């Protein structure tokens, strides 16, 4: 059974210690699940009965290429025009509840594991028509157009319907890819990475791709720019370009995270 951690907010009691695992450095940020409380939520323009944890936005100390939100819609909540900016693409990934997505005239019901890629310029809206809170990740990126290449089309799928692909030489490190990474129409990917207990990234990846990682399940120890950091379900890591990164999955179950990365574009110098 797959599981998808979902924050519920609340506030800690006055007797709790102030110490936690939050880290903000130039190379990386760790936002532990204990930070996702009521007091740090935001309301979103155009949404009703909704609150959001904004966990990444383009700032000098955060993301450079994308934004990421955890959005919670109560029963009856909706947004007729969620995306306010032209030319912005997005991904929605549902972790709990049931979300009605109307996309270019077609209605889709997204439940746990539901995934939607929203092409730049797509006509879409959201509604919670159920009796329970719905929570989903919403990743947004300004699409980088390529001459002679059409933007990718919108699509809807599910985590449960896609077979993970193992890394070469191991069955302990797998990736669920929702789009073809070699398709130059895509300038980003949002995948799910799975490590079996004891699985690892056995070298310090140091690359141009920026990452946002939300831990859906399990625990691991990450090696980030020379620091060893423990993470578990509900934690979020933002890794800036060229941040050295590796990990060991701690078990006893799978370690899985939702992963953003930018890709397939030349570096802009002017």
TrEMBL record:
NCBIfam families: AAH_UGLYAH2 (NF040771), PRK11171.1-5 (NF008376), ura-cupin (TIGR03214). InterPro entries: Cupin_2, RmlC-like_jellyroll, RmlC_Cupin_sf, UGHY, UGlyAH_cupin_C, UGlyAH_cupin_N. Keywords: Hydrolase. Gene3D superfamilies: Jelly Rolls. This is (S)-ureidoglycine aminohydrolase. One of its GO terms (molecular function) is ureidoglycine aminohydrolase activity. It is an enzyme of class 3 (hydrolase). Residues 70-139, 192-258 form the Cupin type-2 domain. Its EC number is 3.5.3.26. CDD domains: cupin_UGlyAH_C, cupin_UGlyAH_N.
